[in-house]
Amino acid sequence: MARAIAHEPETSPNSAGVGQVFEAWGTTTESGVHLYCVAFPEVPAGLKLGNGILEEADFVGYFLKNLPYHDRLDKFRAAPLLIGRLRWRENPVRVAIKNQSDDLFLPTVAVGVLIACVLFLSWLYTRRSSRHLAAATQISSSEHQAIETWIEHADGPVASPESPSAGSDRRTPSNPDWTDVTS
Questions:
Q1: pTM for this structure?
Q2: Taking the alpha carbons of 7, 13, 15, 19 in that order, is the dihedral positive or negative?
Q3: How many angstroms separate the first and last alpha carbons of the chain?
Q4: Domain residue ranges of the chain, discontinuous segments joined by +
Q5: 155: pLDDT confidence band, cut at 50, 70 and 90?
Q6: Within the chain, how many helices (H) and strands (E) appear?
Q7: How far is it, in rounded angstroms, from Cα 59 to Cα 86?
């Protein structure tokens, strides 16, 4: 259904005993875009009246006539007018979405809070670690002066890396002052 409305109540009694008439417009899977009009005497429990609704219903009744109407493009059309009883069906997709959203709300919030806490704690740990590392790597001026003095007074040539020859044993130390501790 796309539209369900209520007509003014009947002021004079009728042979069917109907006090008020309701009508609904909609399509079926077989009708495609072609509308049907259904007239019924009672609104089923749970059915909301109004325009632009998306509801499903079962209808039991009979065909009365073709009802002329103009579509949105002002083209003349005719819709079958059916008279009978309407039984509203709760939309299974809407029910599933509602149940799913109700069941997943608290777990979603809990996971979100947990992720936020983990991110905050990792940021805090990284920040503290970088401060401790920066403090540990700082050299005082006396230490800096001691290193400079040691470099200036180091005796002997500065070591340079030697490339091993093709036939040499890798276990043999490249510096003759070193002792072989592997044997």
A1: 0.48
A2: positive
A3: 93
A4: 17-90, 92-134
A5: low
A6: 2, 6
A7: 5
